Amino acid sequence: MNLIDTGIDKGLIRFDENRDFITYIHQNKKRNYNNPEEKVQAETFLTLALIYGYPVERIRQFVSVQMGSETKEADIVVYNDDECEETYILVECKKEDLTDQQFNIAVDQAYSYAVAEGAKYVWTTSRIKNQYYEVPDKKPKSRIEIPDIPQFGIKKLAPYKYVKGGISQTDTEDLSIVSEPDPNAKQKFFELQVVTESELTKIFTQSHQALWGGGQRNPSVAFDELDKLIFCKIWDEKHPRKIGDPYDFQIFRDEDPEDLLKRIKKIYAIGEKDAPEVFKDGISLTAQETLTIVKYFQRINLNKTDLDSKGKAFETFMGSYFRGEFGQYFTPRPIVKFIVDSLPINHKSRVLDTSCGSGGFLLYALDKVREQANEYYHPVNDEKDHYKYWHDFAEKNLFGIEINDQIARTAKMNMIIHDDGHTNVIASDGLLTDLEMQEKSGNKEFKYNSFDFIITNPPFGSSIKLSEKAYLSLYSLGTKEIDWLDIKAEVTKKKSPRDSQSTEVLFLEQCHKFLVEYGYLAIVIPDGILTNSSMQYVRDNIEEMFRIVAVVSMPQTAFSATGAGVKSSVLFLRKHSENQTEKINNQKNKLKETLKKDSSYIATIEKWEKEKATAIKKLEADVKALNPKANKKEIVEIIQDDKTAIQTAFTDKVNLLKEELTEKYFLAKQTTLDDYPIFMAIAEDIGYDATGRNTNNNELIEISKELSKFIAHINETEK
Question: Which one, of 285, 191, 305, lies nearest residue 232 by Cα?
Fold first, then answer.
């Protein structure tokens, strides 16, 4: 039961039928619950009554405060007596969507109200962020920041708020309403809190904005520094400590901000030894900036917040940030989940994403193996075996490549947030050779012919130019195909490099190189690869390299919400054995040679060449006979149009013959090459619309069930 429901159950609040209005029963005050500030107000009131134990008779809301000649309103005032004459705590509630600057203004406002009312303590809250102060009895009434306000009956505050094994702020089952202080009461300490996706997104966004400072710091630098503190937060949560021991990533009473910064840097240094590849530079924030970020994160439990919430929050924040900074587009989570769910990935599978971005595909693969661990081991009773099952997979079998160094670090951070798997994420151009990647990263595991599954969404629309990247010539799809009906090219068999090639095409070949025989590739591609006539050579190569397993068409709007509008499909492919690829090549080449032989293609072309040459010579002779005094240049000018007509007629005949043979080739190929079934599906609704809004109808779920059965059948029956 959450705090709101408990408040209803205890008779502290009630709602109207549509939950548009809330009534605070003790004060008989009815308020608009659709107001974002009111939601914070309600939870804060219930926290004071149910968690901090203050009698509702001593809590008043919407209290008039005299500020000089003006009358203001304090959101909540807690009194130290039943007559409500001695002001004890003044609380200011603000909506969650608040910038750090706006929050600081609210703090100033609350403190001024507290001084005016003679309050001992001040609490300013947006739920996302909390700040607490003690007001001195004597002037000057300078602010004394404290880790928490006192609970009912507690006279002396402890130096910290959060400890391992403390009470949960969301566990309301044993809460009761009190009226008298317990003389034996001891201060409650709190356990870190699991938060929602929405809360976490706001925490990420607001803390980044606080470091960015509206332009005072480069947003990219701000992002890196925030990552470092998140890193410290995660490491602090993982650090072994006894029940009752305080967490280090929090504000302590009577502590100078410089001391907090030293403690945070100490956490960072410990974590850095375990993961030196994540960050190479130390924390460069000021003590005050560090204090600001700690306030945002200290109450939450990143490790225990569920995977989906963390992933969505991180990528929502990441998506808007990186689109602005780098023009990066991340794969929508329903598509990621569909791909991973469709494939038979297990804890022994080696899995690679060649363009991993923030690590979405890898995280879902990890989550899939985590769920499989539940089938074999109990998460609590068999904790060690359960952990080893999925953690070995995360540590040894999950691999990612990301060209942008900052995004690669972010992917590592994302993996750390999700309990590891960061070790094998490298910053590298995903189109380099495996040896170049190994040398650059120092990771020898990035080997061709070594991965069971590749799940990826490569960048669309950009081109690799030969003048910029010499490796283009190393790709078959980076060189021009020899036209089997071009007699001269067929003789020399010499391929020439292309001037450029699209990244998505090159990644198809690169993924083939990385896969083991019979390994699976699931790749998001633009539909042009499947439909454009100019891309036929790419489809021919796919046919030779892979067994085409499935083509699942995505709606036009699939990537609209992330800023991309290219119509795309998900292509599932299974790598052929070398023998099978060689067999297909031989069959195709034999078929081509047979068609040329049966049609006397070469002899026919040579005959037409001779006829063309004879016709041009006759034309030249006839013109010279009619113009005996004309020189060679004049004759060329006279016959130009007629000569062009002869050449055009020849070219048209040749092209017509080529078209006939090409058509015969495609028809004959259908009966010559081995036939096999291909899974085809069109997904029209994939759970969200063009704006990213939930449609509550995801056809990919059912498609995935059927596709996974289809793949299982292939694995059982085909080799």
Answer: 285
Report which secondary-structure segment, H or E, holds 570: strand 568-575
- Give the C-alpha separation, 706 to 719, whole Å: 21
Query: What is each CA distance from 299 to 175, 200, 585, 609, in whole angstroms?
Result: 20, 11, 62, 84
DSSP character at residue 51:
I
Answer for the pair 26, 151: CB distance below 8 angstroms, yes or no. no
CA-wise closest residue to 3 among 120, 150, 168, 132: 168
- Cis check: omega of the bond before 140, within 30 degrees of 0: yes
Angle at 205 between CA 364 and CA 285, to 5 degrees: 105
- Gyration radius of the chain over CA positions: 35
pLDDT digits (tens, 9 = 90+) for 666-677: 999 988 999 999
Tell me the C-alpha distance between 309 and 203, whole Å: 13
CATH domain 331-526+548-576 topology:
Rossmann fold (3.40.50)
Could you tell me which residues are beta bridge partners of residue 91? 76, 123
pLDDT digit string (tens) for 442-462? 899 999 999 999 999 998 777
What are the tokens at 297? Answer: 């994160």
Long-range contacts (CB closer than 8 Å, 24 or more residues apart) made by 53-56? 53/151, 53/152, 53/153, 53/178, 53/185, 54/78, 54/152, 55/82, 55/152, 55/177, 55/178, 55/179, 55/180, 56/12, 56/26, 56/177
Give mean pLDDT, residues 129-140. 89
Instruction: Give dist(CA 452, CA 345) in Å, integer.
Output: 9
The Cα–Cα gap between 428 and 436 comes to 9
Q: What is the pTM of this model?
A: 0.78
Amino acid at 273: K
Euclidean distance between CA atoms 239 and 271, whole angstroms = 10
Please state, as a whole number, how many other Cβ atoms lie within 10 Å of the Cβ of residue 632: 9
Three-class SS state of 339: helix
> What b-and-e string marks burial along 578-595, b requiring 16 or more CB atoms within 10 Å of the CB?
eebbeebeeebeebbeeb
- Answer whether 29's CB lies under 8 Å from 23's CB: yes
Q: How far is CA 120 from CA 77, 79, 84, 123, 124, in A?
A: 11, 10, 14, 10, 14
- Taking only the tens place, the pLDDT of each residue in 339-382 is 999 999 999 999 999 999 888 899 899 989 999 999 999 988 89
SS3 sequence of 469-521: CHHHHHCHHHECCCCCCCHHHHHHCCCCECCEEEHHHHHHHHHHHHEEEEEEE
Cβ burial of 249 (10 Å; 0-12, 13-18, 19+) is buried
Q: Which alpha helices (H) appear in 327-398, and where do they start and end?
A: 333-342, 360-376, 383-396
Residue 547's SS3 state is: strand
Query: Quick one: DSSP state of residue 58?
Result: G
